[in-house]
Amino acid sequence: MAGDAQLGEAREPVALRHAVAAAIARGASPERVYATVVRPTLAPFADAAAGADDDGPPALARSLAHAALAELAPAHPTSDDGLGRAAIVLVPPGLLGELDGQVLADALQASGWDVDVVGLDGEPQDVVARIEASGPELAMLPASDAAQIRAAERVCSMLRRLAQPPLVVGVAFGSIAAAPPALSLDHHLDGTDALAPLLHRRLGTSAGAVAWGVRMGRDGADGLVVAPVGLLDATTAARLREVVETRRDLYANITIDLRGLTRADDAGLAALAAWDAERPWAPGVTVLR
Fold it and tell me: In angstroms, rounded to a whole number, what is the distance separating the alpha carbons of residues 47 and 52?
């Protein structure tokens, strides 16, 4: 019970939540905190959860989980990369499958994705029919242990045979280093920290439904970097303005980094100039070209 050894009395919801908050404050990523703090603490309850009554271990485990994931959710990196895009998270049966799936959904929603959560406890053909009907660009699933892999085998295989298959990404939270051979995956990740670069590369500015996105990151204690990617035209310039202006009063300095744009047309550049004229960027906003 590695989680118990690390956390001491963290089996109480408040204690676990405090442990999560402390790890985030030390700079650990949400995925790292989940994989090394939350999941090991809850893993001993997973077997006990099956078939137990509501007053037994499952009730305590779910209380712990809700407290911890509520603390983690706001810490996921935010962006507009997923705006206008749909994703599905496939959730294996069991307590850990449910929690792993929720972490994946939280990470995607923080990046603007419209996320539908689908359980893998139904018939594979029904699961695939639901996915095909909704037409997501992305399907993600936990692949952290043998039980999760078995639950997803047939669905992943059937997804690859669709006329318009989604990008299928499996995520293991530190348990399986190599891609599970039984799963038909496009990519296998050891945690969610590598997810954003992968999705940007595979579904980003050229292939996805959205030809524009924005990445945001802190710049010191009081600064924010806003880096749009893709096409800058009149429409996306207006969206960039909305992103910056809604955060302008929250940060001492905002840097707009335009160097990641693939193209900026005349209308987009004119919209930037009009924005600066209507509400001057200086002194709080700096633009890198």
Answer: 10
